[in-house]
Specification:
403 residues, alpha/beta, Rossmann fold, 2 domains, eight-stranded mixed sheet, six-stranded parallel sheet, 13 helices
């Protein structure tokens, strides 16, 4: 991977050529895939992001696609998020279609590619609710009646439902009711779906979007960055997200200034959108601290970062169910997170917006190795695979009924 340093330090993934509108990437012809059943492979369409860009939802979709392909599904991923610079995440046996940036061409190509895939199951992953509310229902209808799944990842689902207006709420109801199953990544979303009658309760599945990440192999490439961040005899915290106020990088920096600079260094792994004024403010405030900035790490390199840090921080203003929090717990890291949503058992939660409380939590983590350690929860694939099998059985039952 090519890398470069800027400011206190920034590693960047190799930049690949931009793809054309509706370009396809990765994967191999179905006949060349090992372990394919003799019968035609069932078709699964996943609509969501696929790295790059990075982020919890895109990494979840990529890992889910690879696991389903290994199980014998013919997988098509419709990448709704315009690709960004960075290393392409390998997804063996998966056909990935990068959709154009403009909404109307993207919607047309999405519907066209989904229809040509003739899905036995269609699974839509939503984090940007405003866009999905309008295009999601027509997309889901391409799937068979028993094979339409919708995952809601948005940490702002409740706020957007409350503030979106009558037309928006009506569109969300149609979207959710078009799906046979609605998968809520946290209890807040699941409770709202049921309490507001958005979808019948028996069709709601509460399931964090967590698939076990692979443990990094070899020495990796981030050793110098973490050595630079680590104080003498001290520890390194990792924070990740877009360079936006939402992700709370400023709060992590401020916590170190209050009571942690002698004990902790900080690695900021950022990807995707950047608010230039916010970035300047955070970098200026981090001057004099042991703070290293890494940009656009691949999912596997980010996993290496999780294994190298001593603690993972999640100081977000809102959240769905953070994949990175669960991955950090999976790798045995201490986790300190804002209290904006219920966190996995063992996570040390602090009051959002209180940098002093975060500083105290960091000092507690330095004193007590058990502080902030917990259970990441089960791997979600078994449940998702069961839902896909149900969809396939329903589709084949419909076919037999028509025969």
């Amino acid at each position: 991977m090519r890398s470069r340093m800027s400011g206190a330090g920034a590693l960047s993934g190799a930049v690949s050529p931009s793809l054309g509108l509706g370009a396809e990437r990765t994967g191999a012809p179905d006949a060349d895939l090992p372990g394919r059943p003799a019968d035609p492979a069932p078709s699964l369409v996943l609509a969501g992001g696929h790295p790059p860009p990075l982020g919890g939802v895109t990494v979840h979709v990529a890992r889910l696609a690879a696991r389903a392909a290994a199980d014998g599904w013919r997988v098509t991923v419709l990448n709704q998020v315009a690709p960004s610079p960075g290393v392409r995440h390998p997804s063996p046996g998966v056909r990935v279609v990068d959709l154009p940036r403009a909404p109307a061409p993207a919607a047309a190509r999405m519907l066209g590619h989904a229809a040509r895939a003739r899905p036995d199951a269609l699974h839509l992953h939503v984090s940007w609710l405003y866009r999905a509310a309008w295009i999601g229902a027509p997309l889901l209808r391409i799937g068979p009646r028993g094979g339409r799944l919708l995952s809601l990842h948005s940490g702002s689902f409740a706020a957007r439902w409350r503030d979106g207006g009558a037309a928006f709420r009506a569109a969300v109801r149609v979207l959710c009711r078009t799906a046979g199953r609605v998968i809520a990544v946290n209890g807040e979303i699941a409770d709202l779906l049921r309490s507001e009658g958005i979808v019948p309760g028996e069709r709601v599945v509460e399931l964090p979007a967590f698939l076990f990440p692979p443990r990094p192999a070899g020495e990796g490439e981030l050793g110098p960055a973490f050595d630079l961040a680590r104080p003498p005899g001290g520890r390194v915290a990792l924070v990740a997200g877009g360079f936006l106020p939402l992700y709370g990088f400023h709060e992590a920096v401020e916590a170190l200034r209050i009571r942690g600079a002698d004990l902790w260094g900080l690695v900021v792994a950022h990807y995707g959108p950047i608010d230039p004024e916010y970035e300047r403010a955070v970098r200026l405030r981090s001057a004099g601290l042991r703070c290293v900035f890494l940009r656009d790490l691949s999912p596997d390199t980010f996993a290496e970062a999780l294994t190298r840090c001593d603690a993972f921080l999640r100081p977000t203003e809102r959240d769905g169910d953070s994949v990175a929090v669960r991955e950090a717990l999976h790798f045995g890291r201490q986790v300190i997170a804002s209290d904006v949503v219920a966190r996995p058992a063992g996570v040390a939660a602090y009051r959002k917006g209180d940098a002093g409380a975060l500083a105290e939590a960091l000092r507690a983590a330095a004193r007590d190795p058990s502080f902030g350690r917990g259970d990441p929860g089960p791997d979600a694939y078994a449940t998702l695979a069961s839902l896909y099998r149900e969809a396939l059985a329903a589709r084949r039952g419909e076919a037999r009924a028509r025969a």
